[in-house]
Amino acid sequence: MKSNLPSITGMQYVRPNPSRDLSRILNHGWCRVLLTLVMLTGTAQAQAEWSQRGDLSFQTQFFTASSQHSATQSSNVSLSGNAEFNRPFGENGNLTISPFFRVDQHDAERTHVDLREFLYRYSADNWEANVGLGKIFWGVAESSNIVDIINQRDAVEGLDPENKLGQPMINLLLLKDWGEISLFVLPGFRERTFAGKDGRPRGLFVIDTDNAQYESSNEERHVDVAARVSGAVNEWDLGLHVFHGTAREPLLTFPDFAPLYYQITQVGADVQATLESWLLKTELVYRSGDVIKDHAQLVTGLEYSFYSVAETNLDIGVVAEYLYDDRADQADTVFQNDLLIGLRFALNDEQSTEALVGVITDLDGGANVFTAEASRRIGDRFKLTAEAVVWANTKDDLLLSQFANEDYIQLELGYFF
Questions:
Q1: What DSSP element (H or E) covers 259?
Q2: Over 60: is that where the pLDDT of 330 sits?
Q3: What are residue 22's phi and psi, to 5 degrees?
Q4: Are the beta carbons of 389 and 6 closer than 8 angstroms?
Q5: CB burial class (10 A; 0-12, 13-18, 19+) of residue 327?
Q6: Alpha carbons 9 and 12: distance in angstroms, whole number
Q7: DSSP 8-state secondary structure symbol assigned to residue 29
Q8: Largest alpha-carbon pair distance within the chain?
Q9: Which of 18-27, 245-254, 365-374 has the lowest mean pLDDT?
Q10: Which CATH architecture has domain 18-416?
């Protein structure tokens, strides 16, 4: 089951062309070099075998009210597929290829194909190198992972920030006795995807992504850099990072609603302590740049787990997190002074039945976002997932009021192979 509650940050923003983005990635010089090396190595090692796994999912969505924008459907269906192919190269090398597709009933922008990963990994005793398209996750919080900045979100897939586009990268991982040092060169930028004019849920405006603007004269060819140091001290897991490059979430230009991708420097930390039944979590970042106001953001909270409730296999976790942005009303995120309260349920049964429910409350305006998600395996090959999102008391919130009529229930049946 996904670990994060759905994020609603910037939902009204960008609707780029995924096929164009994929073509740009494949046309990068480094990508052509990687493809050549793979073919040459594959010819030299014909005895190596591929392993594979994947899934096909049928998804249906039901909306409880008529929209405030151009999409008129009350329901929607789509089919998606994801696969992962792995092949060893020599004793220390491995290639991972992970394609993804979705075909959507109404939204042409949601019908898309992407390479989530096309990554060559070389592992040695105390270091590892990764080259290609990859996915990286940083963070410990449930409500919002503000430190997670390497990959662009594939937001056309939905509200969950775990849906990511593959990021072109050269990554060197140094393994130490006390932890890891991870260095990144990111030679290419991918624009964020969002629902099109016929898609739901979405905000009021359709964004002119054909005229996307960049602060950097190199536009999507700007080379970003990042580094992270992580390790553990007794019960504490610690991470420190720095990033310089193109911000993953754009601003909007007016009146044409075109995305503006600007340059930032971000430094941050993530901390998690495991103290018996307690989890203590904090993410903190400071962002600076010429286009945006320098600011700090914070997500901090805790989770307490009750195990074997009433002498059964049921575990219940209570989650509480506070989200803060020191720009207050000038923030470009809805999370500037908010509180998350959630409950996590795990039946610990043969079918891996799990559920997560929560509410994020704006402590200034009183707007609420209610979310619920549950999943259960059916046999060895199938998994049923249900999700619901409700926006409430949003009329006084400029961003959230766009979603007052976008409440929905979503069911998804996945087949795994």
A1: strand 258-261
A2: yes
A3: -65, -40
A4: yes
A5: middle
A6: 9
A7: H
A8: 64
A9: 18-27
A10: Beta Barrel (2.40)
Q: Is 417 exposed, middle or buried (0-12, 13-18, 19+ CB in 10 A)?
A: exposed
Burial of 40 (0-12, 13-18, 19+ CB in 10 A): exposed
Comparing CA positions, the residue from 257, 150, 270, 280 lying closest to residue 209 is 257
Q: What is the DSSP string of 174-228?
A: EEETTEEEEEEEEE---PPB---TT-SS--S----GGG-EESSTTGGG-EEEEEE
CA terminus-to-terminus distance, the chain = 17
Q: Select from 282, 179, 172 the least CA-distant residue to 229.
A: 179
Q: Can you give the pLDDT at residue 10? A: 39
Structure tokens of 283?
A: 């993410």
Averaged pLDDT for residues 186-208: 90
φ/ψ of 9, rounded to 5, equals -65, 125
DSSP state of 193: B
Domain positions in the chain are 18-416
Give Cα 31 to chain centroid, integer Å. 23
Q: What is the pLDDT of residue 26?
A: 54
| Per-residue pLDDT at 29 | 52
Q: What is the DSSP letter of 163?
A: -
Nearest to residue 190, comparing CAs of 216, 157, 144, 153?
Answer: 153
pLDDT of residue 27: 53
Contact present, 85 and 97 (Cβ < 8 Å): yes
Which is it for strands 258-261 and 213-214: parallel, antiparallel or unpaired? parallel
Q: Is 381 left (phi over 0), alpha (psi -120 to 50) or beta?
A: alpha
- The residue to which tokens 């290609």 are assigned: 132
